[in-house]
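Ops channel
N.P.: pipeline sanity check, posting one input/output pair.
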């Protein structure tokens, strides 16, 4: 069984890494991010060495935590909605430092 959401996120992250804003935002930035979806799916991002990877499954002691639902995350990666809009609608919850929040907006 394939994980279509994971494949979409990996594809869009690869596309995003081609953008200058994303490259600048993650320059020398090392973080782990836990993404938990309402249907109990869990993913984690690793930002290191000027790249971003995403994997299925959990990670211990993440620097940031994101909670949402599959549809909202799909819309974020397809650029059908913004992180700001999802936050205002309470469809996206992010826990992390303010500086990390400013950087992660370039990922979504």
């Amino acid at each position: 069984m394939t994980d279509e959401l994971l494949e979409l996120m990996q594809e869009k992250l690869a596309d995003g890494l081609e953008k200058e804003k994303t490259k600048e935002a993650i320059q020398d930035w090392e973080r782990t991010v836990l993404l938990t979806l309402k249907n109990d799916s869990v993913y984690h991002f690793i930002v290191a060495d000027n790249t971003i990877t995403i994997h299925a499954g959990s990670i211990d002691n993440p620097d940031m935590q994101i909670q949402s639902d599959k549809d909202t995350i799909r819309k974020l990666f397809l650029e059908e909605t913004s992180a700001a809009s999802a936050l205002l609608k309470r469809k996206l919850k992010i826990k992390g430092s303010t500086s990390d929040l400013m950087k992660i907006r370039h990922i979504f």
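N.P.: looks fine end to end. Strands lie at 31-37, 42-48, 51-56, 64-68, 93-95.
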